[in-house]
Amino acid sequence: MKLYQLKAKQALPISKIEAWNFLSDPKNLAVITPDHMGFTILDGADRPMFQGQIIQYIVRPFAGYSTKWVTEITHVKEGEYFVDEQRFGPYALWHHKHFIKEIDGGVEMEDIIDYKIPFGFLGQLAYPLVVKKQLQQIFEYRETKLNELFGKLEGKKNSLELKSI
User: Fold this and answer.
1) Which superkingdom does the taxonomy of this entry point to (predicted)?
2) Residue-number span of the structural domain to which 152 is assigned
3) Rounded Cα distance, 161 and 110, in Å
């Protein structure tokens, strides 16, 4: 079973505190997820983020199919980073690290996601046709939405990379 990795970086002209307050609020995930994903939080987003927090969602990875997704916040360093891991959901593995650091004029947010696709050989066939394209679309939407909400930090290049590791 292959392991994949997504790396995304985005610079925004906001303070570290403002970035942390937005990104560490689980309710804001719905704001930066495309509507067609049918993303709905069921439980666990009623408190500020903490280590051990379980959050349950419904997500529609493609038309006609929705699934429950349960994640746990496994690590939190206030204002610096947090990690969420899938406990139940559409991936065989999902480990998502979120980092925030100050840069000239604002902050740089970095996401590093290590993940595996379920269904063995069939999953590997579907990866380039469905999963990879969908993850690219989700993170491109997220970049656009964050730029709409907070503005764009001029002179800084954002990046998105998906690869096998």
Assistant:
1) Bacteria
2) 4-164
3) 11
